Structure formats: C-alpha cells, structure tokens
Amino acid sequence: MTSDLLPAAVGTVTREPAGDAFAAALGGRPAAHWLQHSDGQRSELPVHRWHGPPEPATREVVARCGGPTLDVGCGPGRLTLALARAGHAAVGVDVSPYAVNLTRSRGVVALRRDVFAPLPAEGRWAHVLLMDGNIGIGGDPAALLARCRELIRPDGSVLVELEAPGPGLWCGQARLVSRRADGELSRGSAFRWARLDTRAVHGVAVSVGLGVRAVFGAGRRWFGELVAR
After folding, report:
1. How many C-beta atoms surround the C-beta of residue 139 within 10 A?
2. Distance CA 110, CA 101 (A)
3. Domain 55-171+195-228, CATH class in plain words
4. By three-state DSSP, how is residue 213 classified?
C-alpha cells in the first residue's frame, strides 16, 4: 500500500451499531462468552483464539491476499498482524476503541471506524476481510457485502468466514452472554446480527453484484472468496 492509502489519523464512529457489544469478551477477564441468538442458537466465542497469535487456519486466507487489505471487525488484530507479517499493507477497522488499541499494540495500523462510515481509500482496496462471524455485522449480509464491494477495486475480493453447509441465511438479534469463573452470568443488550452459510452465500453475493470465486475449508472452518461480477 502506498502512503496515500494509509490513514493519517484515527477516525470517529459516525453511527453506533453493535458497537462495544463484544467489549466484555475482548477484555480478557477469565470467563466463557457466547452469542445467544434470537432463534435459540448459541455460538461460542473463541476469545483465546482472538487474543492469540495468527492460527494455521488464517494461512489460507492470507495466501489469497495480494495487495492492500482492510480487516473489518479486526478485534485484537491477529489477522491484521498476519497480513503485515506476510508483507501486505493492512489496516484493521473496528468500532471498539479497546479492540483498536489492542491491534495497535501488536504494531499494526487500526482505525476506530464503522464499516458503513467513510473509510480511507474507498474503491482502492485489493481485499476486504470479514472473519470470525463478522458477516453478521449490522444484521444484513447483503447490505454489508454491498458496502464491501464499494471498498474494493474492480479486481479485488472480499474474503468472508461462513457457516458450514446447512443453516442457510438467518437475520435476527443476538446478545453477548458471559459466565464468570464464579458461575455468575451477565447478558449484554440485544443487537442486530446474522449468519450465512456456504450455500446461501451464492444468492446473497449475486444480489449485490458479487460472484463466488471459491468456497474453501481450513480445519473445521469455512470461507468464501467473493469477487465483482
């Protein structure tokens, strides 16, 4: 990434979506954390993985990147770090100030910004990442992917982590639930969220002018590589 693509300063959030809904999980306090979905499904949050080094499953994702990359919902920044170590110019984006600070503490660039707010170098990113369930941001995968399409250059791609084949597309509400070491539960406020699997991604992608170049697995996780049509 050339210097004119790198953000010069931290931006501010112009709207507050789920925002710091994940703050309790990012805080690193000993606890179990999961998302409780309004359809009854429960999704465990791999907090230790988020705070750890880049894991083997990220290698396949990083290997598909070949230019400036925006890591949306970067959390503590392990993927942003993996991209930088691979020689790519990378910027993490997250609405949580705590997540942004954690990412910067790894020695990489991060902005506190909502993906739907103005971002640097719009239309010039080679890749946009939506990992760790971040396809759920905003509760509308079509709107999120349409926004990502605006961010990438014509030959760019959106790399997205997906659900395993089966559940399709679900949009609803979720809340963070945490269980402390003493067994006490705490529940956060509800926010809009979504899930998208390896089959339903095709129709959603086409609806916003993207095509699915590849669906691939890494370990027990699934990913899609989407490109402009």
Report:
1. 18
2. 8
3. alpha beta
4. strand
